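Q&A log
Question type: sequence-to-structure
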Amino acid sequence: MTTSATDQFVPCRRVGDGSQHHFFGYYNKSNWDRTNRLITGQRTPWMDQYLTPEVKATIGYFDTEDGDRFHAVGETGAWNWQMGSQLQWLDGAQGRKLIYNDRTGDMNARYPGFGAVVVDVDTQERRLLPMPVYVVAPSSAWALSVNYRRLYVTHETIGYSEAGGPFELPLAPADDGIWRMDIASGAAQLLVSYDELKAFHHKASMDKAIHWVSHIEINPASSRILFLHRWTERVKDETCFLHRLITMNPDGSDMRLLECSDHPLPQLADDFDPAAVGTFDYEKSEYQISHPLWQDDEHIIVWGPHAGEIHYHLYHDVEGGEVQVIGRDVLVENGHMTFSPVSTRWMLSDTYPDDQTHERFLFLFDMQTGERRNLGSFFASPDLSKENRCDLHPRWSRDGKQVCIDSVHENQRQMYVLDVSAIVGA
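Response status: OK
Response body:
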């Protein structure tokens, strides 16, 4: 690992009093409101509870100008340790509104029992939407939705628990895929089905595999969508996952294939033991396409292979667009990357735990100079499994001066804020 010779870790403080456990979830959205005062998250009495449909998490926010007092606004049974409940601010809506997924009990819904809740944190007014959200467009006019039951089968870490099982699902159905839902009305349309994805630049490895999508992201202008199309014949072994990075318009048109990591899979041999695969082996695979995010309206940062090498790559979202290696000798492992909302000069990311020390680093990367600046080192308990692990998942404040992470380095699952103003303001 290459670091700056002048590395000094930045100030870091826990959010809240630590009386219960708190986390936000994914790295792809800010958990600060527009004023940088409120920090939203999920509260639980446990650090590593095995999740069942009855296990609830409290939804709420910390008020940083009132001693970090936690305000609960609801609870949910539709969540996981990796992404939470897809809790996010509706930035394009008036006032201060949150949206999160829940088990609504509506068994006539497209995904029976699941939906989303919109809550006004000032009036406590709330309304239900008929589908769970994956990500909301920056305009807050619409959201994208997927089948979390399917994710629970294909990639349990990011699905929602269900009693019973194992569940049999169609491999590539024509009536399921990525949905677009109107936030005001709840009306939804299927943008692309799994059957259509299987037919798009078809690979023979898709024929016997089950298909799903993840890492769906909408660009700042709400004019393009990116996602990972994944397929496998062995869902319990993530090293058998195959990946493609695809973009499309918000109506599902003009689909573009930016990268495909289709490769031979010796793990499919009958005598292969998936139990021999380590918790983070998949995240360190040389074929993994992982954690894509928009840098701006036309460029995508991603960890993945291109032209025979795996790096942080920056893609131009056009047919045959340029692909640049970012930080070739400095950014040498997978992480959760985002750009400062103030300046795309600054990329924030992290590492996975070291196999021996179980330490992982949080860092800033200067896109102008190519310098990496470590912000802190955080211990990750090896006792946590793949499904209940706690990645740092770093997130920016709205003014680009602070960073929020989830961490278990104090033997609690808590949120921490780090001050990066001295670096980004320099």
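Response note: The two ends are 24 Å apart (CA to CA).
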